[in-house]
Design brief:
It catalyses: beta-D-fructose 6-phosphate + ATP = beta-D-fructose 1,6-bisphosphate + ADP + H(+). It contains 13 helices and 19 strands. The protein is α/β, with parallel strands linked by helices. The strands form four sheets. It has a nine-stranded mixed sheet, with helices on both faces. The structure holds adenosine-5'-triphosphate, 6-O-phosphono-beta-D-fructofuranose and magnesium ion.
Length: 529
């Protein structure tokens, strides 16, 4: 499948290479870019850009032959990146970011002028958000826009350094803030932001201590940052700057941004932090401040929409797997051993699902997205009886937000307003013990709750790479004049998304997804209701 558009200096084309997946199609590669000399005007782009199928905001009539175009126009608007030039009339200047050293204005050592260097991303470059063409709405995990499950391209903006920038680096004051709970990789991102800012020539870089609180709490001073200072911070977990929840009053934060004369704000955090970052971006616009607010999605919960994963998630899964392994060893070595592990994840079961999958040692995985009963013919307890009878031991992994309907609500919230869950782990431990006592079957229950151990550690290799790229791209995004965006990975490509599109709801495990089905295949568990 290919679409091409002739333009003044060459072909701007979208090339698709499809691989088969039992009736459906998966894109092995896809890109949309401007070859050298090709000047694609927005109005001449071959295919209009389109949005996530499930979240379209326009009413679509699929009998209308132009529905696709309407859908795509809507997508194009929604995924267009907010820029400071939407509000101010600014002229760009050539970038100061270059990887070539000792370059003279006339060119590099080979005489190649700077503007011919290919290291930059074109503003019209795009990456595809979705790469599977479902042939039917009944295909496993299908996300369709229309009843025929038509193929609609969903392009998003490619991240990276631009040839032209909208800030004078030596006049820039850049600030970094880390909010919410801890997460592996925070220090890696801080470090890369500082490195990249310095590469552009920024000298005034500060850290805001303890999350949004650092903007208004008296006595908390901003911390000057430099490559020298942050060189080794990635070797430890936690946040070099400190984190906090709650207390985000947008107007006070923006007062503080204004008073401190901050031009670029890099905000590292989860969905709450992103909502805060977007509110700051809006307020800065309202006040006509030339400030770029760029977020980097951090959370072990992996609960931010549209992106492949948030940084820290991979490491949390790896750590969680260790807890499962210990539970397995304990259960395996006990007579009628039952290993029970509770894992974090505010309202999503991603950590529990992925740790169950990666360990391969879990017999029952319980997540908040899939309701279950403990008692009765189809309950979890009856299945545990069966497992003890047939294999002699078993391992259960439960997400902290799972089975809340079985418990009395705590009614409590944290400083950010997030619900504090009742303890499903302790509840299950007691229920299992009582059940086996009641039926007169011995059971040796070993309960492990690793709590903060899954997040208070340094990033693993794959998270460290993700953090490196996301941190660097955040700086490129700010210099390119974007604001109200997040630097993330979608379908293995590094992109920018408008924050508004990722905060509409927390991302949750889809019980109809192939991944959850794979988890069920691995555990062999039945439906528990
Ligand atoms: N809707 C919102 N508008 C403005 N600020 C918000 C909003 N939601 C949360 N915040 C602020 O963002 C910060 C972080 O939020 P929160 O504690 O929910 O963590 P998070 O970013 O979701 O990360 P984590 O995944 O660790 O929970 C807090 O200071 C909170 O006050
Ligand atoms: O750090 P706190 O406030 O105890 O919050 C714990 C929560 O933070 C997370 O670690 C990240 O959102 C959740 O998995 C967990 O529910
Ligand atoms: Mg959150």
């Amino acid at each position: 499948m290919a679409a091409a558009l002739k333009s003044s200096g060459g072909f701007c084309s979208t090339q698709h290479q499809w691989l088969h997946s039992a009736g459906d199609r998966i894109l092995s590669s896809s890109s949309h870019s401007n070859p050298k000399g090709c000047s694609c005007k927005k109005t001449k782009r071959p295919a209009p850009l389109c949005v996530k199928a499930t979240s379209t905001k326009v009413e679509l009539d699929f009998n209308d032959p132009s529905w696709k175009q309407k859908f795509q126009e809507d997508w194009d608007k929604r995924f267009n990146l907010p820029r400071i030039t939407d509000v101010y009339d600014l002229k760009p200047r050539p970038t100061t970011f270059s990887l070539k050293k000792n370059r003279s204005p006339a060119g590099d050592e080979n005489g190649t002028p700077m503007d011919k260097w290919n290291g930059y991303v074109n503003n019209d470059d795009r990456a595809l958000l979705k790469v599977i063409k479902y042939s039917s709405p009944n295909s496993a995990g299908a996300e369709c826009i229309d009843p025929d499950c038509s193929w609609v391209e969903q392009w998003v903006h490619r991240a990276g350094p631009r040839k032209e920038i909208y800030y004078e680096p030596d006049e820039v004051k850049a600030a970094i803030v880390t909010c919410g709970g801890l997460c592996p990789g925070l220090n890696d991102v801080i470090r890369q932001i500082v490195f990249t800012l310095e590469t552009y020539g920024v000298k005034n870089i500060v850290g805001i201590p303890f999350g949004y609180r650092g903007f208004f709490e008296k006595g908390l001073k901003e911390m000057p940052l430099s490559r020298h200072l942050v060189e080794n911070i990635n070797l430890a977990g936690g946040s070099f700057l400190g984190v906090s929840r709650g207390g985000a009053k947008t107007s006070e934060i923006v007062d503080s941004i204004q008073a401190r004369r901050i031009d670029m704000l890099f905000v590292l955090g989860g969905n709450g932090t992103h909502a805060g970052a977007n509110a700051i971006h809006d307020e800065c616009r309202k006040r006509m401040l030339k400030v770029s607010v760029v977020a980097v999605p951090k959370t072990i919960d992996n609960d931010i929409l549209l992106m492949d994963k948030t940084f820290g998630f991979d490491t949390a899964v790896e750590e969680a797997q260790r807890a499962i392994n210990s539970a397995y060893i304990e259960a395996r070595s006990a007579y009628h051993g039952i290993g029970l592990v509770k894992l974090m994840g505010r309202s999503s079961g991603f950590i529990a699902m992925h740790a169950s999958l990666s360990s391969g040692q879990v017999d029952v995985c319980l997540i908040p997205e899939v309701p279950f009963t403990l008692d009765g013919e189809y309950g979890v307890l009856r299945h545990l009886e069966h497992l003890l009878k047939t294999k002699g031991f078993c391992v259960v992994c439960v997400a902290e937000a799972a089975g809340q309907d079985l418990l009395q609500k705590s009614g409590a919230t944290d400083a950010s307003g997030n619900v504090i869950f009742s303890d499903i782990g302790v509840h299950m431990q007691q229920k299992i013990k009582m059940h086996f006592k009641d039926i007169g079957v011995p059971a040796d229950v070993k309960y492990i709750d690793p709590t903060y151990m899954v997040r208070a550690c340094r990033a693993n290799a794959s998270d460290a790479i993700l953090c490196t790229v996301l941190g660097q791209n955040a700086v490129h995004g700010a210099f390119a004049g974007f604001s109200g965006i997040t630097s993330c990975i979608c379908n293995t490509h590094y992109v920018y998304l408008p924050i508004t599109e990722v905060i509409t709801a927390p991302k949750r495990v889809n019980p109809n997804s192939r991944m959850w089905h794979r988890c069920l295949t691995s555990t062999g568990q039945p439906d528990f209701h």
